[in-house]
Each structure stands twice: as structure tokens, then as C-alpha cells.
Amino acid sequence: MTLDRTIAPEIRQIEHFLIAEPERRVLRNGIPLNVIQVGDEDVIRFDLLIKGGQWNQSQPLQAMFTNRMLREGTCRLTSAQIAEKLDYYGAWLDLSSSVNYGFITLYSLGKYFPKTVELVASMVKEPVFPEKELSVIVNVNKQQFQVNAQRVDVMARKRLNRALFGSRHPLGRYAELEDYNRIDREVLQHFYQAYYHSGNCSIYVSGKVTSEVIGCIERHFGESPWGENLQRATFRDCAPETEAVHRLFVEKDDAWQSSLKMGGFSLAQRDPDFLKLRVLVTLFGGYFGSRLMSNIREEKGYTYGIAAGLVNYPGIGVLGISTEAANEYIEPIIIEVFKEMERLRSEKVSDKELDMVRNYMLGDMCRSYESAFSLSDAWIFIETTGLDHGFFERSLEAIREVSADEILTLAQTYFCKENLIAVVAGKKV
Length: 429
Known about the structure:
Elements: E1 23-26, E2 32-37, E3 43-51, H1 62-68, H2 79-88, E4 92-97, E5 101-109, H3 113-125, H4 131-148, H5 152-165, H6 177-180, H7 185-195, E6 201-207, H8 211-222, E7 247-251, E8 257-266, H9 274-285, H10 291-299, E9 306-313, E10 316-326, H11 330-346, H12 351-368, H13 372-385, H14 391-401, H15 404-414, E11 421-426
Parallel strand pairs: 2-6, 7-11
Antiparallel strand pairs: 1-2, 3-5, 3-6, 4-5, 8-10, 8-11, 9-10
Helix pairs in contact: 1-7, 3-8, 9-15, 10-11, 11-15
């Protein structure tokens, strides 16, 4: 049989999409353990999730620095010894925090996992937050803050969130330079004692997970309660205090280009319309062939790139639009953004365009959940957002079944330029 390479292969839609669920266990001290056994390579990813982040802190930067300082010294090991051991065993450690969680992520060769997970257990269960190392880390972050504070995209993002949520809301309150001077060992210990304990965490392990790997996790994290407080974190309700404005400007005289951030409140992930609205937003500005890219980049040449997306926070969503361009193009870009929104509100999309978006989104789903580590990301996403296990299957159904008529109705319902706040950071023209 001769293959005719002048004929493109037929495009077929995904009929069924299955993401393998973790094997769910509970350790003796009550910690949930999620095991994702996928792959033949001798590599393990270990994730410890601590419930408590920016939303729970009593002052700015507290959650971030508490998490970051775990690797800077324990009762048994100095920061240099921790770094040396991680390097010796070829392991990689990532410490990060979000609005509502802290994350400790370890990548390790399976044969060295007993050694590396022991190291992580010491970091998590007996950190000392040494003053010398804390001073160095705070100063490094303070310098990075000063650099970032001069970037127009950071200026615009912070001002938009402050306008949407209000300065007293956890999502609208940002650290200032003086907040770095208020970080000390006692502040971090207070947050650590409140949230870093066996009653407030869960574990994910993925890759080539053996019985020895499970045994190591049970031995170091699951045999008995650890930590000073065994109460699970809760999130207090905090209503946004949105400014009654539509346009804001943050001036930076020496800016060669301006940053534009537009945003307004949208649907939370649990809303019945959310998944189909996500298709509309992708069509509008969520991929390279979107309406915004085709018009503002390809046709007008105003910018190298512009994107729209749904940003999700606990219990609330934001429709965001973002780009950077030469100062003189910002006003024309805003006009074109509103024009594309109005087109979607008044004209049905073609079957060809809708199929293109469907194929892009379905392909992206397949690429996103094809390995053990990406499966970990998927199920960690479900836990940290509070969604149910049917979310992925419903996502597939929404992409596959949404119609042009529904896209039109969704645009008419949720695309309203009066609900958007546009923030420009740059030089006045």
C-alpha cells in the first residue's frame, strides 16, 4: 500500500476520555494517600499538600516564606547539608504556595527514594527557620520585588486585582516593600504551627510506585500524628469590594510599551455554564487561532500576542484579557477587544471555527494528562479546587456537545463590556 502524502489524514474527535484515578488509601494517622501507578521509568514524584496559603495568612508574605524556609535547616540538618544531599541523590525539590495551599514536591529516582523522602520528612516535621538564612532569603526576595515592581505587567495586574477585590480582600492585598521587613522567625513559626501538621495535609505519589515506596511514606509521614495543631484549615468568606470604575491608568514615564489588563467577575468552576463558557473564552482569546489573535495580531499588527482566559479562585472566577503593546496602540486594542466581544454577541460562529476550537481543546486535554506526573497535577487540581471526580468527563462532554447557538447565548449572557475594568500601565501618549 502506497501512502499518498498529498492527502491530509482524517480528523477524528475523541469519543471517550478516561483519566486514571489514583488508588486512594488512608495512612494510620489519617493522612489521605493517593497513589498513581503509571510508567516503567524508575522515577517517583512525591507531593505533600498543606491546606493553608495566602487566604489564611495574618500578614503578607507569611505563607510564602514559611513554605520557602523549610529547606533552610532542620533540627538535624543545615541548609548546606540539605542542598548537598539533594544534589548527591539527583533529586529535585520544589516549594511553592498558592491562595489556599502550600506544596512540597519531590522528584527522585526510585532507588534513592528512601533517602530523599527521609530528607523531606525532616524538613516538614522539624524545621528551625534559622535567622541567618531567613535574612538572606528575605533580602534576595526583596531585591526581586523591587525589580518586578518596575515591570508594567506587574503594575497592571496588581492594580486590576485591587480594583476588582478591594485592598482588604486576600486577592486584592499585595505585599509592599516594608512587609519584607516584618517577616521574622516568630511570624513563620506561628503559621507553621497552625497549618503544617498531619491533620491538615494529603499526599500524592506517582510514577513507578513500589511497595517499598509506600512503606517509606507510611514510616516517615503516616505512623502517628505529627505537628502541634490537628485542626484542618478553613477558609473564611470575604466579599469583594469592587471599585466603581471602568478605566484606570498607572503611569511609568520611561516605559517603551504599555501593559493592558482587562478583567471582570465571571463564573465559578462549579457553575453549570462554566465548562461551555470556557469553550467560548478559548474561541475568543484562548489559543493562537482565536478571534483576538486573528484580529489584533494577525490583521492589525498591534501586538505580538493577546490572550483571554478564565482565572479561577476559591468560589469565584474572573474573565481576564492581557497584552503588551507600544503605547500608541493600547486604545485601538481596547476598541478591537470590545468589537470582538460584540461580534460574538451578535453573530453565530461557523461550524468550521467551532470545530477548530473543539479539536484544539480536546488535543490539549490529551497532551495534559498523558504521563504519571501530569495525572498527579490533574488530581491535585481536583482536590485544591474542591471539584468532584466527574469534572474531566463533563469537560469533554461540554467541548464536544456545545453548539453555535449555545455559544451565542453564552456570549449574550456573560460578555458585557460594562462589567470589565481596563487597567493600563505605561507612558501617557
